[in-house]
Amino acid sequence: MVATHALALVIPLLATSSASSASSATAAEGAAEVRRVGSPLASASGCVIDASGATVTRSDGGVETIPLDELISVEFPRRSALAPASGERIVALLHDGSRLEGAVAGGSAEMLRVALRPGVELEIPIDALSALFLGARAPRLERARFDVSAKEDALFKRPESGGDFTRGTLQSFSANDCEFEYSLGNGKFTWGELEAVVLARQGELDPPKAPLVHADLAPDGVLTGTLLRFGDAGLELKPQGFAKSVVLPPEILRALRFDGARHAWLSDRAPAKVEQTPYLGSADQFLFPWRPDRTVTGRPLAVGGRSFAKGFGCHSRTRLEFTLTPQEAQFEAWVGVADEVLDLADRGAIQFAVVLDGKEAWRSAVLRAGEPAVKVGPIALAGAKTLALVTDFGEGEDVADRGVWGEALLLR
Q1: What residues have CB less than 8 Å from 30, skipping those under 6 apart?
Q2: Model confidence over 286-310: pLDDT tens digits?
Q3: CATH entry, 265-411, from 3.30.300.130, 2.60.120.1060, 3.40.50.10490, 3.40.50.1220
Q4: Which has the least CB within 10 A, 104, 119, 238, 368?
Q5: Is 250 helix (H, G, I), strand (E, B) or coil?
Q6: Where are the chain's structural domains?
Q7: 14-39, pLDDT tens digit by residue?
Q8: How far apart (Å, rounded) are the C-alpha atoms in residues 74 and 239?
């Protein structure tokens, strides 16, 4: 990959407002849900957030100031679906774990331009990019499947275009293709023939500065960066590897999530032990392995029409065991059968269970697709050393048993 410098992301239709009021920041779209450590979920008509904290106007008219280290998330009301941008559909993975979905809008030797929505375009520096996926399967693909070299970039063609891959050095992007240097010289490959572009990491990017915010985008995707401000004009943040800040308009935001010393998303840590057991056959015949923050088929987590940016997709029977620290006091989550099962003939049948130090602490009834998500906890951990999430068989063997653990959260 050619050496580059970071470029800015461009939002041509928005500018950041410096005079937003808490009462107006979300009022136009209805009430938002504000989640704070140690407090029940609060309904808010407005919210302004910067590095000093959040000023929240509650639905009852009261105003509350929340320190940033106590703020877990702000979830915005569901909005009407936005028209997609025109162009070749693409999923862009960034080195910091961000995931962006949109359409290719152009590029150069230094950046790729992605349209998230009509009028909302991001110029992503090449140094920040980890992989690009294209075609109908793009939302469900994972980078690990395409890792063939740690030192070279690689292009992978779609099965209908031959399915082969080429290693070399990416030269540039355009709206129609990318230019690639490989063993036969320089060539241009159209987006329509490619399934994946994997970029080798060229050195380490400067670590992002605190406070961090994770912007969950509609209908899917997330962008992480240093929080600058959230208000009427949307969210201003500076992603890792970007030279300038970015403004995301409020209509493409599903939620904002924050890092803090008093809470942790369980899907951000690797399980200490994994057991996956099919209803019939041996463990090596398990067809749908668990995934963090996606369903077992790679789709967004959703149960009963409710979306979750964080959590796990698990097929029955899966047991994920995590090591706890003494500071972790409570666990909570939402569970249910993934909405994608509604497209199948069967509705699945799953029981979910929470196990502490080998003893069952909670178990759900049998749940099926189409039913609302069920709240888990808060469950007191009371000094437990291990926490296991069990996605168990319900009825009807394991047919369509695609389970979701949404917003699995540890509180300290």
Answers
A1: 77
A2: 778 999 999 999 899 999 988 898 9
A3: 2.60.120.1060
A4: 119
A5: helix
A6: 89-198, 265-411
A7: 333 333 334 334 433 468 899 999 88
A8: 19
